[in-house]
Design a protein that fits this description.
The chain is an alpha/beta fold. It has five helices and four strands, in the order βαβαββααα. The chain has a four-stranded mixed β-sheet, sandwiched between helices. Helix 1 links the parallel strand 1 and strand 2. Helix 1 packs across helix 4 and helix 1 packs across helix 5. The longest helix is centred in the C-terminal third of the chain and has 17 residues. It is globular and about 40 Å long. The model has no long low-confidence stretch (mean pLDDT about 95).
């Protein structure tokens, strides 16, 4: 796997190993060869992600994770499987870019009483699924995406992130 990792915030010491583990598990679940997949991941702070959120989503506030797919793979039918990504002329599969904010992730993990590593792993899986055409706007799509997240995280030995008990 080609992972272009940029750490703009020095607090992101946990990101490199978590990213490798989460991305590898997600690509394996999706049946994609990690050797030919290309992903860019930015570890930043709330100020940077708020600027990105304002620029690309017209929402000038911090968020936990943002994704920019290399191509639109979304299914047209609610709850449908997205299209499979295809290799480009070089044989690589460019999937897109993800940004994740330390401050928001830390706040959310603390508020939920979850280990930061588990929460960040979930958000990387979540962001990568967005690159692969999954979404959670429509109920049927959310059910599909959350089921995949549960399965991938369960394979990693992590708890269901949607279990609120």
């Amino acid at each position: 796997m080609t992972l272009d990792l940029t750490l703009e915030d020095s607090r992101w010491t946990i990101l490199p190993p978590l990213a490798d583990r989460a991305i590898s598990a997600t690509l394996a679940q999706m049946g994609l060869d990690p050797e030919i997949c290309e992903i860019s991941l930015l570890g930043c702070d709330d100020d940077r992600i708020a600027a990105l959120n304002a620029e690309f989503r017209d929402k000038p506030a911090p968020t936990n994770v943002l994704s920019w797919p290399a191509e639109d793979l979304a299914a047209e039918e609610p709850g449908g499987e997205p299209l499979a990504p295809e290799a480009d002329f070089t044989g690589a599969i460019p999937l897109g870019d993800i940004a994740i904010a330390f401050d928001t992730c830390q706040r959310e993990a603390e508020a939920a009483g979850k280990p930061m590593d588990d929460h960040v792993t979930h958000l990387i899986v979540h962001g990568l699924l967005h690159l692969l055409g999954y979404d959670h706007i429509r109920d049927e799509d959310a059910t599909l995406m959350e089921g995949l997240e549960r399965r991938i995280l369960g394979n990693l030995g992590l708890d269901d992130p949607y279990n609120m008990e």
